[in-house]
């Protein structure tokens, strides 16, 4: 089976440790991932989260590029609703000028935080003039094209190789938009693993893009024994918050759900505690599952999100998976 394997890291803050410890762990995992032959290493964007340290992926990407030499590094992803497309293009063109051929720009629609941080990020934005997400992707295409003949603002510096562009989503609408704008689709299976939705989204993207297949993001944890993996993953929980406006949000605890509702200004809400969908077991068992996704859907690359476990567990997991030789590139 031939497919690439990449990683997504959220810089989780372990109990009793600090955000600085979490970021050091992310750097350690990234450098080890390069040694093991993983294809990409992406970092996330979460705002005002007490349990996650990566709020500015572009800053962390720059540091990771400086600490590595071969592995592609990128965002999984920039939460585009908060930012000017021009500024995002400038930032990633600069990164791609520092490390040509190694920079990925992944973008998403979610806020990546609670209502207060969203309002703080968008304080200077006039809602009546705010472009929609599709328009922002079009603007990014223009700025990243580095066309000297373009008569608008140039997002300099122009890198020798443009950043690769990825849209993170988990719906048919995301597939259609990614294909229309010429972006690679990353299906967020770690957030929405519904098999019927996955199949439909893959089919729509393949048809609309002229035969391309999405990258598939999944949560995965490998251990020496199935029992240990089950025990560690079995302790994980997510809380799904349902708000009166039909908005749903996944958070890490009942306390976070109550705080999100408070910041949103609502008291009428409900919650459901759920076990997150995580591939777990031995590396061989996970390989078999990835092989099946590859066989059934033609997946050519997986981005694996390691759950918020200890640094030792996360490192052991990526080492075990690499030892299974999951078609990694050196």
TrEMBL record:
<dbReference type="GO" id="GO:0005829">
    <property type="term" value="C:cytosol"/>
</dbReference>
<dbReference type="Pfam" id="PF00296">
    <property type="entry name" value="Bac_luciferase"/>
</dbReference>
<keyword id="KW-0614">Plasmid</keyword>
<dbReference type="InterPro" id="IPR011251">
    <property type="entry name" value="Luciferase-like_dom"/>
</dbReference>
<protein>
    <submittedName>
        <fullName>Oxidoreductase protein</fullName>
    </submittedName>
</protein>
<dbReference type="InterPro" id="IPR036661">
    <property type="entry name" value="Luciferase-like_sf"/>
</dbReference>
<dbReference type="InterPro" id="IPR019949">
    <property type="entry name" value="CmoO-like"/>
</dbReference>
<comment type="similarity">
    <text>To bacterial alkanal monooxygenase alpha and beta chains.</text>
</comment>
<dbReference type="GO" id="GO:0016705">
    <property type="term" value="F:oxidoreductase activity, acting on paired donors, with incorporation or reduction of molecular oxygen"/>
</dbReference>
<feature type="domain" description="Luciferase-like">
    <location>
        <begin position="16"/>
        <end position="296"/>
    </location>
</feature>
<dbReference type="InterPro" id="IPR050766">
    <property type="entry name" value="Bact_Lucif_Oxidored"/>
</dbReference>
